[in-house]
Fold this protein.
Amino acid sequence: MIVCVAVVGHQNNPLYIQSFTEADDALKLHHIVHCSLDVIDERVNNPKKSGTTLNEAFLGLLYPTLNYKVYGYLTNTKVKFIMVTTDLDVRDTDVRSFFRKFHAAYVDAVSNPFHVPGKKITSRTFGESVGNIVRSYTFN
Amino acid sequence: MEEYPEELRTPPVSLVALFGYPELHASITKHLHSQQPPINALAFPDFSHLSQLLAHDDKINRTSSSSFRDPLSVSDPSSPNPSRSGGILKRDWLLKHRTKVPALVAAFFPSHDIFGDPTQWLQVCSDLDSLKSIIRPKNIKLVVVVVQSSPQEEISEDRLLALRKRAELDSKYVLFVNSSTDSELTLSLSRIASAFAELALAYYREEGRRIKSRAEKRSSNSIDSNVRYCFKVAVYAEFRRDWGEALKFYEEAYHSLHEMIGTSTRLPAVQRLVEIKTIAEQLHFKISTLLLHGGKLVEAVTWFHQHKASYEKVVGSTEFIFHHWEWMSRQFLVFAELLETSSATVQSFSSLNQGTSEMPLTEFEFYPAYYYQLAAHYLKDKKSALELLLSMSKTAQEIDSSSESVTPSVYVGQFAQLLEKGEVLTLHSITDEEYTRYIISEAKRFQDSFEIIAWLKRSYESFLDLKARRMAALCAFEVAREYFALADLSNAKLFFDIAANLYRQEGWVTLLWEVLGYLRECSRNLGAFKDFVELSLEMVTLPVTSYDASGNLGNKKYGPGGPATISGRESIHREVFTLVCREAELIQSTPENGFRLATDSPLHLEIDLVSPLRPVFIASVAFHEQMIKPSALCSITLSLLSHLPLPVEIDHLEVQFNQPACNFVIRNSQRPKETSGSSTVQSGSQVEDELSLVLVPNNWLRLTYAIKSEQSGKLECLSILAKLGPLFTICSRAESPAAMEDLPVWKHENRVESLPTKDPVLAFFGQKATQVEEPEPQVDVSLGASGPALVGEDFTMPIEVSSKGHAVYSGELKINLVDVGGGGLFSPREAEPLSLESHHVEICGIDGTEGNDESETETGNIKKIQQSFGLVSVPDLEVGESWSCKLQIKWHRPKPVMLFVSLGYLPHGSEASAQKVHIHKSLQIEGKMPLFISNRFMLPYRRDHLLLSKIKPAPDSEDMPSLPLNEKSVLVVSAKNSTEIALQLVSMSIELDEEEGETSCLIEQGGERGDTPGSANLAPGEEFKKVFTVIPTTRTPKLGLGSVHLKWRRQGGNTTEAFVSTKHKLPEVNVEASPLVMSLNCPPYAILGEPFTYAVRICNQTQLLQEAKFSLADAQSFVLSGSHSNTVSVLPKSEHVLSYKLVPLTCGQQQLPKITLTSVRYSAEFQPSAVASSVFVFPSAPQANSTAK
């Protein structure tokens, strides 16, 4: 189950962060999302070391914590998408397709002429579409 | 890692035992240690110590082994349940094999014992027999070493054979040691070492094989024996340094052990699991160590993950889950320490390929920091589980460690009760209940917090080294929370601050809120009132926009800051403002805040541009004008913004400028006027009243006032101080609207932003500073320039300072000469900085005042004069007075120059602080050459010299005129007035430079002596010429002719003006002797039709015979008789005359037939000049001459 998704701006500031748990760990998820930015930094700065190709937006598994797995995605405009899931067996292709849909929803949201680039995303439509995408993905 | 026994942590080392001949033991032991791999040795001095070999020295072990070893004999009544006895691994087995059970025994005998006396031989035999009887059952190898004292000692073959038979040894293993010489000894030692190594290897291999076969034979047997066998095989493989096999069997043991979970029934449930997990832990440790030392980092990490995954869920009793968490935490900690110590981490990280496909690994899983962090996390879980358990059950609380004497039992992972029965100590197996009591009492003894903090700190530092700031911040936050829980507030504050800084920087508001909430609690408990207010205000102004706690952050485990909601902000706002804006008498009524405040302790907050408190109070100040006149009113707009969630009313505002005289106060007229003069503004400053001063959240409060400044220069608004209560002030740095930066935490918020001022131009370009102009100068400075300046003269520039409304006090005149073309006043090419000449234009002096006698006497009048700069003090002038001086400037080169004159003065004499008024004047002056001097040489008329250099000019010679030696040449010097004004030329003369010049050349003035010495008036453009004769007397290629000296002055000026003398250097000439001179003889004029004689004299001036070819061209206007061309020989120092008769045919100036002479010797051809070879032909004989006479 996806428990948290986040959009992080290119100055590593949160633009959108939403958790989908009933439990009381939203703050913990914020910490996890924030820490995973370190991994993204490391991957982007040392592309050779980590072996990922820079041409790809999907960054793969960032960082396994105790109960979660964190996946990342980096757009051309250096906006980062981060997804936290509790599923331990996840196929990369599923995550990729999730991020592709998420990216499309993000593009729709920022294409709104009233949206100022670099500001937090407060669109309710975006929130709804992200909720739908999240609910449609259960990786197991 | 330290809690594991030593024998587990280090790789095993083969062990041998030495008997007899103790003299040699030290050197052998040392040698064996230095082997690669090393061998440990047990040394016994003689065979009487034989019994100590393989001896058990522990009483408890012996008794317990009797009670545990044989599960079938139920002899010991103390074990109530026979099925529970036994275990998987004996605790001391590994230690025994590393320190007690040798792989071989080496028996040392001196050679004379063997080959000498039969009684001694018998002793040897009996020693060997007793040794064999001990070691045979254990399969321990035997080596016999015969120690020879000298190499020549005789050896009896029979005895040797008997010895071998007795010892049942191959001849290989009966060694000889010769200790007589060092070289022999080292040779023997290395032989011994290799034999020992070989035998030890064989022993461990055989032991391994034996156990392996036993395991195969009894494969149907219980799993625990299988685990045991695998472990032993692996240990023996390790003894042999066969890491691959060791790894294989450790893994096999590990997997078999895992099967035991849930199947084994031997021990009570809790203890059973504890035993399995303890052994799994040790096996895992061995496997990880082997993998990491083999450089297989990826495999090690993958293995660890499998280990974690397979035991994560093996919790055991949920009631005592803390024990499981402790175990998990230890796994992570040990692995972190292993990773840290293994060098493989550093080298091979770059070559990692991110693990396997089914288990992808990420970068941070290769860093120990990750595992330290998780170890701390599990330990925290343990701590909270333990606390929960202790709080839930009364019995758990009552347990203390003293009650039972439970100790680790013989088997790994098992515990037993130590009972004392008289002298004998016995171990009893215990029930689960006893065991849990034991672990709870053990757990209570430890302070987990300190370990959690230590590990998290280690993780924090290591993340910092990896430049993973966010992970480090999280660790710092966790450390701080631990400290907070321990009530170590100053340490907690330190680490909270680290985390808060990063979250502030990156704008993670929810995380920042949490940290600030903790920090606020810290400062509250520390009693730091100012910190508390600052932190509260920062929290209050965070862009938290969610409305209810049940929304996004539905979190029951809030920090002390509570949920990050708008209502949370508002409640903190109210709390802090009731605290700071309290009335004096209300102080006692707020003891619950924990602050004990004195009535007169004012709170003052400074907010600068980088302060996190900036959103509390932003002050943007804009002047409406960029330049203002002194004493004129100027509008200034103050725009104030606050992000506080609730409106705030300000008592009064103070606006502070860099010119304190301009400071002013804005008072809220609804508030009672302050009686005390506590305001920092001086009395008498401007005070404005405003109907209400309320800061509404997110709305600019715009105030416009008019101010005026008396002082010229920059006027800048520095800060705005808001007084919010009797004791609370906030001072915010003023900002220009044009250069206002976004707030770091608010800039990403999606909200409507308004401009600080209504006028958009002011909002985008407004500045907090303006320039106050100087007062208008009311003094005139005039430069009485007259025309262009002439090079060489002292050009006079009158400067007049006349007061027209201002008196002049301590006036100063600055004079500057600046090259118009840029750069300095001297050219760098000819720069000789020390010489005065290097300045092309310089100020020679400044004449004092006219008509002001007292200033003449003042020596301080002229303060300072340099070549291009002058400073003159101007005497004090009353209104209407004037003062003037004359500036003398001299040009050395023609050059346009800019003259800058600036006068600075004080309009009011007395004020020391008053500002000077400045007047600037500038004038461009052209420096011109007054006279243009040129010169020309003329050779004697109708005498042509063969000057070889003229005919064949040397390549490097320029256009240097050549003069014949000892001949009188004519020099015409002309001076042309190149200015616009008339000049009076007084004299012109040529002066030779040096004495040698005078000897080498003779220059006379041409014309008659009685003539005027060259005095003339020259109108603009007019030219003056003077003729000199030059007779060079020395032959030299470069003859200096000296220079022309001119004396002149401006015509029409006053006659007192001095003459200016100008020098002009004449060019150098080439003087040479001419070998041939051709002179033409011809009458001064001819008459049409009348014949005349035209003679060409060729004069040879050399000592040589000269052959000359000549040719004469026909001329149209003459009839000619004589030879046209011929070659003549001219004798030395003689001349040859060619004589022609000519009859002119046409009138007027006619060209004579042209003669061309070619010197054969010099192969040089020359002609007379055209002017010289012409004659005027009259139609008839002229009469004028006669009439004149």
